[in-house]
Amino acid sequence: MPASDHAPLPLSAVHVLIAIGPGELHGYAIMSEVARITDGSVRLGPGTLYTSIKRLLAAGLLEESGERPDPALDDHRRRYYRLTPAGRAVTAAEVERLEALVAAARGWARETPP
Fold first, then answer.
1. DSSP 78
2. Of the residues 34, 109, 111, 114, which has the fewest C-beta atoms closer than 10 A?
3. What share of the chain is helix, strand, coil (3-state, %, to 5)?
């Protein structure tokens, strides 16, 4: 399925995909990473986070990781998620879409008198 079939994603889903990036993260780590990369301006609550994860899993953009950290270092109840190849493609397409939006806004802002 082409990346364009998923666009545009809700911004909360884009935050989740970008937060996970090339790694694997569990839910709380995703929430923490979103807050970190947005300097605290975006804080996903559990309902928003897990709704996004559920939809991204159903769309084939995320998958649950079968690998687990050492049980002595981790809570066995945590589920770890990673991007699928389709998820990486959709994330790249969403980043390009948002870059174009920001470029248009910057152009408009330069043309508008104060």
1. -
2. 114
3. 60, 10, 35
Tens digit of each residue's pLDDT, the chain (114 residues): 555 576 689 999 999 999 999 999 999 999 999 999 999 999 999 999 999 999 999 999 999 987 766 555 566 678 899 999 999 999 999 999 999 999 998 888 777 666
Beta bridge partners of 40: none
Residue 24 and residue 84 in contact, taking contact as beta carbons nearer than 8 Å: no
C-alpha pair distances (Å), 113 with each of 29, 102, 108, 109, 110: 43, 18, 10, 8, 8
Which residues, in sequence order, are bridge partners of residue 80? 26
Write the single-letter amino acid at 96: E
User: Tokens standing for 3?
Assistant: 């990346």
Phi then psi for 2, rounded to 5 degrees? Answer: -65, 150
User: What DSSP letter does each residue of 46-63 carry, written as one string?
Assistant: HHHHHHHHHHHHHTTSEE
Closest by CA to 56, choosing from 108, 106, 10, 110, is 10
